Amino acid sequence: MRRDLCDGVGIARLLNATLVLPKFEVAAYWNESSGFADVFDVEYFIHQMNGFIKVVKELPSEFASKEPFQVDCSKRKGQFDYVESVLPSLLEHRYISITPAMSQRRDRYPQNAKAALCQACYNALRLTRSLEKKASELLEAIPKPFLSLHLRFEPDMVAYSQCQYSGLSSASIKTIEAAQGDRKPWTGELARIWRKRGKCPLTPNETAFILQALSIPTSTNIYLAAGDGLMEIEGLTSVYTNVVTKSSLLTGEDFTSMHGNTKAALDYHVSINSDSYVATYFGNMDKMVAAMRAFKGLYKTLFLSRRAFADFTSQGLRGRDLMQALQKAHRDDFVIGRGSALPYCFCEVKL
């Protein structure tokens, strides 16, 4: 959502258009109805974007009762697509809604659009005061120093990956099957190829093994940045015993009544301020956290290599041999965030 909002800012600057504060389409994520103002400081955002683009909270009365003209930008890749294909619709209908363009080439934007997008991403978006206070309380409660671990092994994630796993509990298998629908897992040689491409989420047990291979002590304080529904979590906590979550540290009624968006914002805040950050996937949150940590000068950020793990295990490596191979594969992989999210927002500096 944060990424799509930043994209919207860049596109608004490209088209010289006014941006209306967005409404989150959250049903697909959390099945709830929180909005922009529940997560982000609206007044701060509008003030910080002044001079870059014009932002309004609500539609003018002449458009308030109308539905926007829908423009599908999912195939757009550069500034000329927006100017040539989208601007005419904006001029004609004056009020449009844009489908996020997953494959757009932001590096082709003119400098003014890049500046607006970078300003939104790194300077204009901050949590609401109340949410920031709650996030600070959470950060304070975590034993220091600590590693923030973004672990992705939820039923919908596994079902979407179409990967096969052996050794899962019957409860996990049933939960995954219920989430699969028509998306059945690959079998045979296709399953092996898919896994070797690094497409399969790491299990908590595999994650614990790789962390040990990287010589991360089992006594390490770990904050688990994850939503509800993680499966097989014992595979991690049986090895790394100092694992905490937001639900274990914040138990008040104000926390239990929080929306999924605001709970995810807590994980995001903790992750960009943690001593170290490790991700088992390479999703939107991971890319943005890595970039924000680089922006803050926090460089201990690591993406665990699912491809390396699959490749080595397919070769039959086990135990100490597997650990040594994984350690070598990850040795040069600590990243500073550039290339992970909006790399053109970083100045090129030679030290």
From TrEMBL:
Cellular location(s): Membrane
Known pathway: Glycan metabolism
Mode of membrane association: Single-pass type II membrane protein
An example Gene Ontology biological process: fucose metabolic process
Major subcellular site: membrane
Keyword Glycosyltransferase annotated: yes
InterPro entries in UniProt: FucosylTrfase_pln (IPR024709), GDP-Fuc_O-FucTrfase (IPR019378)
Coiled-coil regions, chain positions: none
GO molecular function term, any single one: glycosyltransferase activity
GO CC field: membrane
Annotated TM spans: none
Keyword Glycosyltransferase listed: yes
Keywords annotated in UniProt: Carbohydrate metabolism, Fucose metabolism, Glycoprotein, Glycosyltransferase, Membrane, Signal-anchor, Transferase, Transmembrane, Transmembrane helix
Family to which this protein belongs: Belongs to the glycosyltransferase GT106 family.
Name of this protein: O-fucosyltransferase family protein
Organism this protein belongs to: Juglans regia (English walnut)
Species classification: Eukaryota, Viridiplantae, Streptophyta, Embryophyta, Tracheophyta
